[in-house]
Each structure stands twice: as C-alpha cells, then as structure tokens.
Amino acid sequence: MHRDVKPQNILVDDTTKSVRIIDWGLGAFYYPGHKYTVRVATRAYKAPELLVNYDTYHYAIDIWAFGAMFAGIIFDKQYFFHGRDLEEQLEKTIEVLGTDEFNVFMKKYHIPRPAFVDSFQYYEKKEWKHFMSDNAEKNKFITRNAIDLLEKMLCFDPNQRLTAKEAMQHPYFKKVRDQIAKQNQADATAQAPIHLEPSPDVDATKDKGHNYT
C-alpha cells in the first residue's frame, strides 16, 4: 500500500505517457487482518475508513485517493473533497455519497460511530451530474465511462471498490490499452530478425557470369 497517493506523488512522462508513483515513505506491506495507523494520506485524499479511525484497512485506500483525484480532474476542481479539518473532510464525503450509505458502511464493519458525526445534518446521495459545470468546456472530460469508473472507486465500502487491476480493465481505459497493444506490436515487428533465404532457382555456388556493374 502506498498510503499517500496524491498529484504531487505522481510523475508522468509526456513523451512515453508512462506514469510513476513516487515517495513511498508511508508505504507498507499489506497483511490481511493487520492493524495499521490511520495517520496516513493527505487530508483531501483520505479514504472514509481512515477518517473514522478504522485501522484494519487495506490497499483500497489508494483506490479511493485516485478516485478523489480523478473526480477533481473530470469536474475541474482542485480538490473534490476539501474539508478544513478531518471532521469536515468526513462531512464533505458524506455530503456527496449520502448519510444512509455511510451508516450501512459503519454498521457492516462494526465501526464505533465518532461523536462528532452526530452534529452532521442528513444528506441524500448526490448524482454525479450535480457536479457538472454550466460551462460545457469544463465538462469535456465527463463521459459515461468516466462516471462509471468514478462510481466504482468512490464508495464507502472498501471491498466494493475496484482493485487497481480491475480499474485498468475498465472500458474507460480501452483507448490506452489499444494504443499500448498497437505500440507493442510495432516494436515486436521492428525487432523481429530478418532471415534471407536464397531463391531456389539460384545456384549460389556458381558464377553464372552475370554482370552486376
């Protein structure tokens, strides 16, 4: 688990389109059932399980962080969830995903309810179209596949979020997969050895007297 996925920790090679995640200072190996510190990740990208001090988390916190980044990209926001502190960060999350969904998550994993949550008002889950801009230019990255991918990453239940492998197989990335496959095929063709075979009607051992000048 990286545990601090955010824009500042992602490098993109504009030429090769390669992506690298850097700064693994908070990284940890995942052991099922192991308890980890919740004092990880940058506030704007903290998964809800971290915000309610659920310490038996796993790699889905990184998927959440990517989802929060992705939402910021397609909806043209610097931070999609932007609370002033951890309590407000959780409220901003519930405001989008809904109070009922939050309660189901808490009950399913037997997470003690933080006292500060009682001060939150009730929120209906919002549809993603609610975050679209009136400016069509700002909606240029919003597609049906983009929303479907987002929906499957930004959900309270960590075990319902896509894994990284599943996310890469999502239809949203089909164009990327096709481009990679095409490039790999081109590279394989360029690197294939060339075998020159003599023509069967040419006797390479004899000089036929041909003039090649």
How do the helices and strands line up, and which of them pair or pack?
Elements: E1 10-12, E2 19-21, H1 48-51, H2 60-74, H3 86-97, H4 99-108, H5 144-153, H6 164-168, H7 174-191
Antiparallel strand pairs: 1-2
Can you describe this structure in just a few lines?
With 213 residues, this protein is an all-alpha fold. It has one domain: Transferase(Phosphotransferase), domain 1 (Orthogonal Bundle), CATH 1.10.510. The chain has seven helices and two strands, in the order ββααααααα.
What is the overall shape? Answer: elongated
Query: Strand-and-helix sequence, N→C?
Result: EEHHHHHHH
How many β-strands, per DSSP?
2
Strand order of the largest sheet: 1-2
The helix/strand class is mainly alpha
State the CATH superfamily name.
Answer: Transferase(Phosphotransferase) domain 1
Helix content: 25-40%
Classified by CATH, the class is Mainly Alpha
Mean pLDDT: 91
Main sheet summary: 2 strands, antiparallel
Poorly predicted runs: none
Distance between termini?
A: 69 Å
Number of domain modules: 1
Question: Overview of this structure, please?
Answer:
- With 213 residues, the protein is mainly alpha-helical.
- It has a single domain, classed as Transferase(Phosphotransferase), domain 1.
- The protein contains seven helices and two strands; from the N terminus they run ββααααααα.
- It has a two-stranded antiparallel sheet.
- α2 packs antiparallel against α5.
- It starts with 9 loop residues before the first strand and ends in a 22-residue tail after the last helix.
- The model has no long low-confidence stretch (mean pLDDT 91).
